[in-house]
Amino acid sequence: MSAGNQASGGGMPGYLKSLFPMDWELVRHAGAEPVPYHLKKWWFCLGGTPLYLLVVQVLTGIALTFYYVPSPQEAYASVAAITNDLRFGWYIRSLHKWSGNLMIVAVFLHLLRVYFTGAYRHPRQLNWCIGLALLGTTLTFGFTGYSLIYEQLSFWGATVATNLAEAVPLVGGQLAYFLRGGPVVGENTLTRFFILHIGMLPTVMFALLGLHILLIRMHGVTELQFEGEKVSKEERFFRFWPEHATTELLIGVLLMYLLTILALVFPAGLGEPADPTQTPPHIKPEWYFYFSFRLLKLTSLHLSVALTMVGGAVVFCWPFIEEWLQRKYRVPESFSVVLGVVGFLGFLILTVWESIAP
What we know:
By secondary structure, the protein is an all-alpha fold. The protein has helices at residues 3-7, 11-19, 24-31, 48-65, 75-84, 89-116, 125-147, 152-166, 172-180, 187-219, 240-265, 290-298, 301-329, 334-356, and strands at residues 34-36, 237-239. The chain contains 14 helices and 2 strands, in the order αααβαααααααβαααα. Strands 1-2 form a two-stranded antiparallel ribbon.
């Protein structure tokens, strides 16, 4: 009996399995994984929302890359051509813009949910750190993507951002030189941001995302129980497939509908082309950096950078800091809730303040 006959001995299913020898029982087991009851509510299951928006970002980003020219001489003109001349170019660009904005909101809300439900505590401290790294990567995506338009505000926003990077202790000079591609923002800066946006950041994002999902699979999803809520033993869990997957698919359809409405009502526009010789009277970054920009106005360059770094380090390491405080000083868990509310209100006040300031 030949090897080919042996492979096809089990009929067509056996032949297909020999072509792609995957452990289908393992796949079936993963699809049958029980999902906690509370994840039926969308606001407790925000992790899938930024993942869907990331897919939209990747697909629209690839489409835009075919027509975008990453050079100071051609960048603005190529974006203008995409927006005004290319068929449905304005729609693809608007989808890319709004999916990026909503992705930042979704990741931020997901982290808030994890924090205020205590889902970052042992043994999930490392996944909290990875989630913060994903938020930082998402914000950097937004910054580099906005800078690629090469209009006045994006050019001078990049100038302010690299000045902030230069104020970082110890490595600020090297970091700013790397981002600028020289001593000042110039022709090399746009190329650096383009490479970061389409090459380095996606690699980091998918690596962190893979590790994030792996740890979720290893630890399982935190099961939340609420006072006064009665759930029968049969309803305590539901299947990942098809119940949870179908819900996520419906959320994806609704997100696509929302993105289309935003693209139609608030399409991505264009400001004046970048002019390195003329500083615009009012420089403002994108809304997700308003808090940092207001802090810069209230303090100074070096102090605002120091405060941002200290605050970010505390948030990043908070699961371990809280554990140490509880062990050494018997600090109650409610302390973390109060601290989180104060921190969020501070962030919100600075953001709204900057948004309404002239």
